[in-house]
């Protein structure tokens, strides 16, 4: 809850009536307050305010001594009018602010123009409490105003420039308030509130007063038009919101064309001294009385300015501020007034000795409150969002305050991270922050957020941080070297520093790796390559490719192969134009296992590129990779077979020897090795099938005839290549053959299968032949079109004569060749059949058969 107090003659501070309550609440105030000073201060020292009216351009203040002051919005006096020796009760302005209406306690009523000489002066025999000008009084057809004493009078100027008076209402006590909006005049008397439609000249409602126990002259009715059809009434502790609506023409009869509906009504805790709208909410000025145990009866406390949200059956308090105005202990409810400026949402709290201005808090005020509550992050966010609208604050200064707060709190990582956003491109601020972080020993925290793009700090700053990491954190140092561009700092100075540390720890892999990276930045790739090879670092191949260091690795091929054979070989083969095959073979000659890996991959890529090394590869495969020896022998076209056979025989590689013998044409010797050394009848049968040589089958049968297991294998497999009867006839009587029954059954099944296949093929062949014969028959039965475009294939004249009435003969063959009958040579006939001489010169073909056409 805010208090209003004088500060340096201009400002009001906001203080809580209860300090403990202020500590507990974190809700931000909705309004801010300041006293209206300057000329107002001097006026109220000698006089007292009785009323005030607010216009967008100026203020009009009435006093108890009968004077009217025109003020600017800062409270400076611009004009002064001495109207009466007694209290000014009401001041009214039209919408243009060009005309002023004043009424006083001694019955005087004056209407005058600020910029014209026209005016109205009248003295009544009773006090005039209120008056209101027509909002459009400046227009000649709207020269109207109302006054209220013991009755409500309407003054209208006619076309003769004379004022006509008419009584709108009387008989219900004094008129205590009147408000004119558009064509509607609302006024309050001792009984209630009435609304008069000046257009239809009808009174359209009567809203009765709720609390009749309160004196109407002490607790005045507050009226406020929210818009042209919404009237807010505050009386005692009761609030009613009334909506003026158009009546349905079918329901009018003798009723007014408009009616009033109370859309919201509720009671408040205190007595209402004034009302004003704020969007869809209400600003209420309360007169507060509280009881005390120490004092008999009640005592007056500071007035309250609340913002409430009206509801259909109640209200919700949004904010509440207690205002310390001068002499509040002496003021009555009727001494307070609340006026507002619709254009700027300014609210003026008027009391006899003080005028306080309340206004909505802007974004600067919101940021002030956040900073006061040390909510720096929210303040920074609010400033960034509204940077175009804030006037008193600077985003960067707020950010610096936030960073300072984080540093004081010990949250160095967050403070460093915020530097990136707050400091932006201000290099001076960056350097100051770096030195501050150095002072508090937190260079590591800010290191990862330093600018490293187009905008950079001085190299000394980066070097200072790198030296700090080098002293305490090798891994962090290595990370910075990887992340920071080499142009940020003096590379040679950092290299020298790393070498100094390596003197103490020569095998430190982190420092060695980082040193290699530094050499790379400095384009000393050979030094970097040596370190990477020494460390067997995975980036060595990337370094070679990226910087084309193939000339530097010609004497380091063995090291590369020892590190990662697969990657090394792939790299060497991909770059044959830079490191030749002969050079690689020369380097690897003393490391045959590595040479084999290289030549093997070369052979897989291209069977012909390394053909001159195929002879050497035979022994390499035999030594290091026998499973790939046979595939190599099968695929190589440049391998010397004699050399290969010699090596395989020396090492007793039977399968490879068998392949070489068969490839050299010595199939019988190869089969013999399979049978004798491998004793594998299945492989022998497979070999015989591959060679498809009848003599080999004879040798296989001869070798197997005295070996029952071999006979079983032959019986199971040779049925499709050799007649099994030949084998069965050669089996000695009485020989026990394992699984003979199963083998014979399989032979019979294979035979039956062959018979079935032959019969199936025969059926298919016969069916296809019959189908094709029927198709040919249908085709040959079709007619053949003969017309003038056809020619004789012998004489090459039209096939039909010019005169078709004469007798002629045409011969048409099934091949579509046509002849004049007389043009055909002597027919060659076989059993009376004639053939086309063109299609069937040598053999019977599609031209067989004849279609003769005669006429």
Automatic annotation (TrEMBL):
Molecular functions per Gene Ontology: zinc ion binding
Region of interest called Disordered, as start-end residue ranges on this chain: 1-32
InterPro entries in the record: Beta-prop_Vps41 (IPR057780), Clathrin_H-chain/VPS_repeat (IPR000547), TPR-like_helical_dom_sf (IPR011990), Vps41 (IPR016902), Vps41/Vps8 (IPR045111), WD40/YVTN_repeat-like_dom_sf (IPR015943), WD40_repeat_dom_sf (IPR036322), Znf_RING (IPR001841)
Annotated GO biological process: cellular response to starvation; endosomal vesicle fusion; macroautophagy; protein targeting to vacuole
Domain of life: Eukaryota
Protein task: Plays a role in vesicle-mediated protein trafficking to lysosomal compartments including the endocytic membrane transport pathways.
The protein's name in its UniProt record: Vacuolar protein sorting-associated protein 41 homolog
Organism of derivation: Phoxinus phoxinus (Eurasian minnow)
